[in-house]
Amino acid sequence: MPGEADRPRRLLPGAATPYLLVLPAAAYLALFVLYPMVQAVRLGVTDAQGAWTLEHVRRMASDLYFWPAVRYTLLVTALAVPLQVALALCIALLVNTRFPGHTAFLYVCAIPLAVSDLAAGLIWLSLFTERGYLNAALVQWGVLRSPFNFLSYEHPAWLVGAIVTTEVWRATAIVMVVLVAGLQLLPRDYVETAAVFGANRWQTLRHVLLPLLRPSLQTALIIRTVLAFQLFATVVTLSGRLVPVLAGETYFWYSLYRNPHVASVYATLVLLLSALFTWVYLRTLRPEGEGA
Amino acid sequence: MTVRRVGVYAAALLLSAWVLLPILLIALAAATPREDLYRWPRPLWPDRLSLETLAFFVRQESVLAALGNSLVVAALTIALAILLSAPAGYALARHRFRGREAVQLGILATKMFPATALAVPLAVAFLRWGLYDTLLGVALVHTALSVPFVTLIVASVFRGVPAELEEAAMSLGASRVGAFVRVTLPMALPGLAAAAIFTFILSWNEVFAATLLTVNHRTLPALLVHSVVAEGAPLHYRYAGGFFLVLPALVIIFLIRRYLLTLWGVTVR
After folding, report:
1. Would you state the pLDDT for residue A13?
2. CATH class of the B59-227 domain in this structure
3. Which among B103, B235, B264 has the least Cβ separation from residue A22?
4. What domain count does chain A have?
5. What share of residues in chain B are helix, strand, coil (percent, to 5)?
6. Domain-by-domain residue ranges, chain B?
7. Mean pLDDT score of chain A
8. Residues 168-187 of A with CB under 8 A from B
């Protein structure tokens, strides 16, 4: 599919046709993506009368939850993303050995693609909660004498650990898809050539496969990083507001405090972080000769 | 050689267990009688399995309504997203035109766009437009989130249908529209169905915008977030809710397992 992307087409000679075909989608995205984007910034810096003010920004910055939210969002991202990439790489390399049954293995690893952050949070809650499976097992096997509360404010490290575990479980699949696709595109004879010159498996991986896979690795890394700033339901289901995150604060300011202005400043911050990383993405990863 | 093979299988089994075990456990939790969930010491395997927790969950009026809302929103989103994206995808697949690069860049940029940033300003705008707390409003946001992905999927679907066939039909006297409807469209239908399924999963799973945009007409994820955060719903309710969210996704992903990689692969390119 991707190879024949840019073959010149002769159908539909009317010069206006492609523009007419693209127009509805473009207009729609302008109204429902571009306009709200501008609106988010505007709501953040104007008061109810429409006059300019930095009041909302100040209110956000002086809020008790603000800096923890920034810290935890970045912390969870910094912990989860490398783990996701590493685990996805293991899966992709295993699939690439084409062992009998590798397609079934691939399906299984792809299942979390269809699991939402909310569902993932609730699933792992059943393990991590005080009377959950983890405690039941640890007590039964004699590791613990009484259940340990993994999800309490007294143990923020365990809370973050539970959130990172859930995020790794849920979002490794999308990274894996990128890497499996990337591996499939690599010419087989590179590996064979390396073997001919006496490279062992580890050397082949380190010096041949990984460098060739770099574009895919970068794509995966950045897609995951950008999506990680939207971290919300996993955190809310596992920790409530014990671990504040940026998207969670957006929700609390809008739904709980009924303050769309401060919520908009948070939204704008998420937007800026995402835009920053998208920009980095476009700068470093300009797709080489690739169509869509 | 055999040692290596054993290693490969052991790793594959371990990773499969890592993915599957939590899902089996939530299913088990949802099928465990309530008193067993709160008993301590908690048995790893319940004395008996029962459907009472799930039945309790489904029998709630709010859950049934939310389930219906989720399905309506998903259906509206699929219709709108395909309607908007199919022409755009076709243009990308079949035409070279000035500004094509810009369109592709625009898709790439909007794809990265967080629902988190859109939901608040849209909620404010929807209050003015009379769309706040309506299923159509949620569907409009879900459509905005899916259009970039669906356009990419549709473009790759149409690329898979040889343009020569369309040309041949036209040289045999079919009109341009006729050639599209009678030759290209039937061949593209399975791909378009896959795009619809992708959209369903996106909409069914979307939490943040649905939560912010609804009060009385919540979708299932929005209802669950509200019950957990605002009402402190009991554990068995949460387990049943989690299981109920995953179930349709599992069924669907099993049905389309063959196209899974291609489908998601197109969207992350």
Report:
1. 54
2. mainly alpha
3. B103
4. 1
5. 80, 0, 20
6. 59-227
7. 86
8. 169, 174, 177-178, 180-181
